[in-house]
Structure formats: structure tokens, C-alpha cells
Amino acid sequence: xxxxxxxxxxxxxxxxxxxxxxxxxxxxxxxxxxxxxxxxxxxxxxxxxxxxxxxxxxxxxxxxxxxxxxxxxxxxxxxxxxxxxxxxxxxxxxxxxxxxxxxxxxxxxxxxxxxxxxxxxxxxxxxxxxxxxxxxxxxxxxxx
Length: 144
Fold this sequence. Notes:
Keywords: Membrane, Transmembrane, Transmembrane helix. The chain crosses the membrane at residues 20-39, 79-105, 111-130. InterPro entries: DUF2721 (IPR021279). This is DUF2721 domain-containing protein. By secondary structure, this protein is an all-alpha fold. It has one domain. It has four helices and no strands. The radius of gyration is 22 Å and the shape is rod-shaped. 19% of the residues are buried.
């Protein structure tokens, strides 16, 4: 029943179990900020390269980097998407924990599912980030 509120012990347990997901959520927020920063740098570089006139023989060769930058931007976009998905899953995990405690329902399976989803999405995001970093370290980035 709704009138049967959870005990202080129950709420304390849910709060203590939500500490680890809260730290994960903070880490994901910081990671998303890094991903967005990298995406902004890629976009800025693309704008600069697109601004090189076709008759600028000295710098025109730099435009050859545009397809690679578009590939990197796509990877950053996917990494951001999966990091946000992981963040939403962690948030839902905490919500499920409190709602199930409120209704005196076992929450272990629901919380475990959301935790696995969030870690899976975070892993996919990290893989895309690693792939983007690897591409970024090619020879084009070492030219002015």
C-alpha cells in the first residue's frame, strides 16, 4: 500500500546502495564533457579546413583531412549517444531502487538489469572514444 511508507532502515539501505551509481553518474558526466569538447575541436578544425580557398596551394593539401574528420565526428557522436544512454540507465537504476523500496518490492533484478545496461553502453562509448583517439593520432594532425 502507498500508506505503508518504507522504514528508515529500508531507505538507508537504498541510499547506501545508490552511492556507487551516483559516482558512476558523476564519472559519466565528466566523460560526456570530454567527448563534447573533442567533438567541438573536430568541428572547429573542419570549419577552418573548409575555409581554405581552393587557390591556396600551400594549405590546400590539408583539406584531404576532411573525410577523416567527418569519421572522427561520427565516432564522437556515437560515443556521446552511448554515454548519455549509460547515464539515463544509471538514473533509472536509482529511480527503480527508490520506487521498489517505497512499494516494498524486491529491486535486485531491476537494479541489476539497469546496471548492466549502463555498463554496456559505457563500454560501447569507451570503444568509440578509443577508436577516435587512434584515428586522431595520424599524420594529418601533425601539420599546421
